[in-house]
Every structure is written in structure tokens, then in C-alpha cells.
Specification:
5-stranded mixed beta barrel; OB fold (Dihydrolipoamide Acetyltransferase, E2P); about 45% helix; about 20% strand; alpha+beta; single chain
Amino acid sequence: MTDISPAVFYLSLAVVLIAAELLILQLSVFWFLFFGVGALITAVISWFIPLTWLVSTSIFLVSSLAMALLLYPILRKWQAKPGPIAGNDAIGQRVVVLKTISRDKNGQVQWSGSTWNAELADGEKEIAVGEPAVIIKLEGIRLFVGRGR
């Protein structure tokens, strides 16, 4: 069995941790990112300066803590920025009416591959099955549809 060097170990650890943060956690937790960057720093240092496992592990822990202290406030501020309002991309999209929608009774439409309950938007008249309709407004999971403008 061959011994693995600290540089190769920490480079592999960096790739796994950073990939997990980006692909699985999607920059929501950040801790894998901090430890991944700490592992990357340790790998680079260990590559150029032969280090013992004890020293390289110490560098890993210190650099991970430093990255957390340095990057966490910046990343939290970035994460707290308001994003686009969910559902705005739905407004104006065409739907297929599956069940007649009237003032007295909600209907059903097919949109984005799913069946949704739908209500008439203000000022709209009954929409029968098969007639064209578009999303006028979205409130939570309620679609308000009309004939389009």
C-alpha cells in the first residue's frame, strides 16, 4: 500500500467539499466551502513545502477557520440580497383549460407539466375547456387566469 501525501489528500478533499457545496448544497450552508478552501490552501502549501501530517492538519484547521471568519459575513450579505419574485416568469404564459373556469366555480388548467386549480382574474368572463387562456396573476399556489390581453 502506498502512502498518500498530504498535498494529494487535501487536494482531493478540497475538490469533494467544494463540489458538494456547489452541487448539493448550492451555496446555502457555506461550511463545506470554507473547509474546501482551507483544504485547497493546505494542498498548495503542502505541494511546495514538504509537511508532516500534524503540520498540514494544523494548517488545514487554521486556514478553514480563517476562511469562515473572512468569507461568512460577505456570503451572508450576498445571500440576503432580494432575488426576483417567484412566479413572475409565469405571468403571461399560456395554459390549457382542463375544467371550465367561472365566477362561481374554480376550474383546472395544465401549466408547466402539472395540473393547477385556477380562478378567473378580475374582470374576466367564463373560460370553457379548450379555450385559450393565460396566467394573469399568481398568489402562492393560486393561478388567476384570463383570455389574455
